[in-house]
Write a structure and sequence with these properties.
mainly beta, 40 residues, single chain
Length: 40
């Protein structure tokens, strides 16, 4: 998996994009390493 976006205390936090190894993509909000909200 590849993440690009904001970090806080070593965790994905804020706005970002996570591309999974199988090709799925989540783009949206993260809170302390966890996808948060609907994303797109």
């Amino acid at each position: 998996n590849i993440y690009s976006g904001d970090w806080k205390e070593g965790m994905m936090h804020g706005k970002g994009k996570l591309v999974f190894a199988k090709g799925a993509v989540y783009e949206g909000d993260f809170q302390f390493g966890v996808m948060h909200g609907k994303g797109r």
